[in-house]
Design brief:
The chain is α/β, with parallel strands linked by helices. The protein has 14 helices and 15 strands. The structure holds iron/sulfur cluster. Iron/sulfur cluster binds next to loops. Iron/sulfur cluster (SF4) binds next to loops.
């Protein structure tokens, strides 16, 4: 059963006056287990929807529509499938002690449904037979899979789960059901780098029709999980991994007309190398997973520059994480040139996770407040929207409105890529 959280305006659900709180029981006689079932079964031209209204009344709706038109019923969040691994580098274990952050941040999810719907990477180690059947029946393709290593022993060492060693069988099983995957490797020095990485790349590349892409991401640690037997990569180790990535990219471009394998921005930053051009990431398909995010942001800013309004005499501060600051400072100079505004960048330090965590999206509200405090006389303060959740809360539960209340003289705006906010002024 699925409970309706919201109903989209101007939708079939709104026309039928289905209220939030309604429990959706079945579509065309098929019981709804979760929101994925709703999405799957509502894609029909004739929909018979059995529901129970908040009043307790049972209702059956007979709906005729275009198969692609959704009902407009937004379900409550599904109960997520929990992870059964114990990776020493797990970011959830890298959170500060419980109660300092929002509770969902302490949930270790490994949910193939979220993988299909939102591109979350999963390990496949917690799949039951009925999950496999559902993947094939509903053709949940592509899935995003944290392969890490095709070498069973190396993957076992990373996930600390006996089922981790079955990665080859799991990929074979998906291939037999025509399920494609985007693969990911989180690179941990001494465990899955070097020859293991080269072997992983070669194995996955050989699955030509199945593996759509491979992302290589350096392991990220915080002040709370840096003592669990994994360390971060040195610049030299990042450089060697990039060489392995480059080798397969050259081959892939020749054989498949696309690079196929992508190193994450952080790999270049940690190697002390310039970030690649946007073309490196082909169509930026993986940008939501942080692969090519900086170059996508750069491209978006540069395409907006000629359209920006005059902001002569205005003072703008951009708050970001320490790793992004040099790139944002370059873009700030270009924005300043086109608008006439004085644009300053500030690198905020991460008080929650410690200095090893340098990305803007993991900064707390308090970190932003400290950065804004010395810029109270500015006109506009921008920060990355990724630091907020969908209820405009920072990781430390400070809300955007509370932050704004503390700085009444400053116009504070979350922003996708800076210029989107400047264009909307
Ligand atoms: S797969 Fe590993 S990193 Fe991901 S949630 Fe599970 S234990 Fe943590």
């Amino acid at each position: 059963m699925v409970r309706v959280a919201r109903v989209r305006r101007k939708s079939i659900g709104a026309d039928l006056e289905i209220p939030p709180g309604t429990v959706l029981i079945s579509v065309n006689g098929r019981e709804l287990r979760d929101s994925l079932d709703l999405r799957f079964y509502e894609a029909d031209a004739e929909v018979q929807l059995e529901a129970r209204l908040p009043s307790g009344q049972s209702v059956t709706y007979d709906i005729e529509k275009h198969p692609d038109e959704p009902l407009g019923l937004i379900p409550e969040l599904d109960k997520v499938r929990r992870c059964t691994n114990a990776c020493p580098f797990c970011f959830v274990k890298g959170n500060p002690k419980a109660s300092r952050l929002r509770q969902p941040l302490y949930v270790k999810d490994d949910d193939y449904r979220l993988s299909f719907m939102f591109g979350h990477y999963v390990t496949l180690t917690n799949l039951r037979d009925d999950d496999w059947e559902r993947i094939f029946e509903q053709r949940l393709s592509p899935l995003y899979v944290s392969v890490h290593a095709t070498d069973p022993a190396a993957r076992l060492r990373m996930l600390i789960n006996p089922r981790a060693a079955m990665i080859g069988e799991h990929l074979d099983r998906l291939a037999a059901g025509s399920i494609q995957v985007h693969a990911q490797v989180v690179l941990c020095p001494g465990i899955n780098d070097g020859e293991i990485l080269e072997r992983t790349i070669a194995d996955l590349y050989s699955r030509e029709r199945q593996v759509l892409s491979l992302s290589i991401v350096p392991v990220g640690l915080t002040a709370f999980n840096a003592d669990r037997g994994v360390r971060t990569l040195t610049p030299e180790e990042c450089g060697r991994a990039l060489a392995a990535v480059d080798a397969i990219r050259q081959r892939a471009v020749g054989e498949r007309s696309r690079a196929w394998c992508y190193a994450a921005d952080e790999m270049f930053l940690q190697a002390g190398l310039a970030l690649p051009d946007p073309e490196y990431f082909d169509d930026h398909e993986l940008v939501a997973n942080g692969v090519g995010a900086v170059s996508a942001l750069t491209a978006a800013v540069r395409s907006d520059l000629p359209e920006l309004p005059s902001l002569r005499g205005k003072k703008v501060v951009l708050v970001t994480g320490t790793s992004m600051r040099p790139y944002l400072a370059e873009l700030a100079a270009e924005i300043s040139h086109f608008t006439g505004a004085s644009v300053t960048t500030v690198a905020a330090h991460n008080s929650l996770y410690g200095p090893m965590v340098t990305t803007a999206g993991l900064l707390a509200g308090a970190d932003h407040a400290r950065a804004f405090d010395s810029h109270r006389d500015f006109d506009l303060a921008l920060f990355s929207r990724t630091a907020l959740n969908d209820r405009d809360l920072f990781l430390d539960d400070l809300s955007l409105s509370e932050l704004r209340r503390d700085f009444p003289e400053l116009r504070i705006s979350p922003s996708e890529h800076v210029t989107d906010t400047l264009l909307a002024l």
